[in-house]
What we know:
This protein is 55% helix and 0% strand. The chain is mostly helical. The mean pLDDT is 91.
Amino acid sequence: MNDRLTIEDLAALMKKGAGLTVDPIDLAGRPTARFDEFGLDSLGLLGIVGELENRHGRPLPPDADRCKTPQEFLDLVNNTLMTGA
């Protein structure tokens, strides 16, 4: 995995971290739909944040687990990973 999180990566993390099978095409087609529409709750998102922090060896912003949509999450994570913040 490179430093940029993709929709496909997010779908895989949703499967691994929360046990949710979400089609990446569905995520891509509805990037502003709320995570709860895909069945992902705040605890599941927290697990995804933890997995990403472990993979990259650095923390994500404290508000990463409060993102409401896939697009919001991807933007925050990718901005953080690209800037090294």
